[in-house]
Amino acid sequence: MDVNSSFKEVLRFESLSIIRETSEKTDDHKLLVIEFLVRAFALVGDIESCLALRYEALNFRVLKSFNQPWLQVSHAEWLNFAEHSLHAGFFSISIKAYEQALSSLQQSDTANYTSHGSFKRTEVMEKINRLKDHALNLAGSHSVQALTSDYLKKKVTERNRKISSSCTRKFTASTLFINGIRNYNARKLHEYRSFEGVNQGRTRSSFVIRPTCSLSSYPSD
Questions:
Q1: Which end of the chain has fewer CB atoms within 10 angstroms, the N or the C?
Q2: How far apart are CA 210 and CA 86, in angstroms?
Q3: Strand, helix or coil for residue 207
Q4: What is the chain's mean pLDDT, rounded?
Q5: DSSP for residue 208
Q6: What's the pTM?
């Protein structure tokens, strides 16, 4: 798995410079290079990069087909790419590919169409529309699930924040309460000790022997 991951990183990095080097090459040469990279990404299991390059190659052919008709993309090629994108979970790209397949099919004549399959033109169009609707439903469901997931994450975060804030307030209130009790007890102890000190002073003073009469009261010799 580590080697495979390293291959993916190397291919992604090197593919950019390889594509830039083909800027001055012919269209056929560019397409050959892209096809090589598509196969390379497929071998290492990088489906996302593989589909991205395939999509770029198909759009490149559509753009160049105005002057080079042999580069035209058939509806079957678009349909194949759309199905692969759909299975890989790239719903928005598959929807665009289905639309391209319909457009390609509508632009081709019946004679040209029959060379690409055994289905009738209307049946193929109905099939493509059904697949497109399916992709739209999956894309909508995926969006709802993503929104629901985000909403639940936000709710969990808010709940945790409230719990944390509540615990902090409870801790502060408990601390204040405990400190209040300690201060109250300390004040009462101080008052008690002060009261005890006064009582002890009174008790000691009551045991002091005072003379009951003066010496002059006794008869002298």
A1: C
A2: 115
A3: coil
A4: 76
A5: -
A6: 0.56
